[in-house]
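Task card 7
Instruction: Convert sequence to structure tokens.
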Amino acid sequence: MERIRRDLGPDAVILSSRRIGKGASSRIEIVAAMERDDVTAEEAAAENGFGAAGETGRPAEYGDRWSRVEARLDEMNDRILALASKLAFSGKQDERGIPPLYRELISRGLSRRAAGKLMKIIQDENLESKAGHDGDRTGDTLKRAIIRSVVSCSPGPADEKRICAFVGPAGEGKTTTLAKFAARILYRDKKSLGIITMDDFRIGAVEQLKIYGDIMNVPVISVPADGSLETAISSFAHLDRVLIDTPGKSRSDGDYVMKLRRSFMGSAPVRTNLVLSATTGEDAMTDAVRRFRPLEYERIVMTKIDDAGDYGCVYNVIDLAGRPVTDIATGQQVPRDIRSVDPQRIARLVVDREIPRH
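Output:
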């Protein structure tokens, strides 16, 4: 490996290895690859069809066109990472050439893309040799890799932005999650708050939040989904926190996300939480991560953890979105079934299937 990196650079990855011949004349054939960064801006622009290269962001007006290109790029990246994950750790492969660590990650519900990324971290940082000699060496190695990889930030709703919105597809548990956050702010953080609901689409959504508001003695204001938040937020100027519930529309409503974006941009700074269910399939989760990106969500809340068969999906969404999962919902009970998580808790959740108790 040292010679390969000396010849190809520090980013080189072993793709496969095999022994050729027998006896004294035998030799080892190694196939390695390295990532190229020398594609010019003009080449990239010509390939993706967007014309001359401009700013690095993804303007919302690209819409579905960018999503299709991004999906193809992600698919290509998945294949590369899956191939690169066959790292040949000192020949530690099964009869199919698959490293046991990679197989362990897949068995815990991680995608090929996510498993390949973690395998590269294990190889680059030599984590397998750093695992303890007692107990589960494999589990220790996997948890170390996840902790290294996870994007971290302080858990919970309290930060520099007093206004927090919950967005996501229909049926993911946004309204119940908001109620749990509201109870946490009131009873744990001892802060005052108001609730705004923009969900005038789902039958009973406004009434559900008003019931929670009555129980907690919290004011609730209803605003149309395409309406202005400014007046409602101004009426809560005397309160410490404001939580915003949003409707969950189907992906066929292409204007929905952009309407929300315009509403948020016309108000005070809003921190956006993307709410996703742990029972959501990989394709639907990937679609949601991409579809809600124009809202610039900062954190992710995973719901229905108690209904999931495994918890690799928690790491999968972190890998896809590049944003931290800061909270998980472990049941329907308000306010108790919500847990803050950090990289260590996420590692134990994925590898040991250990759900935090508090």
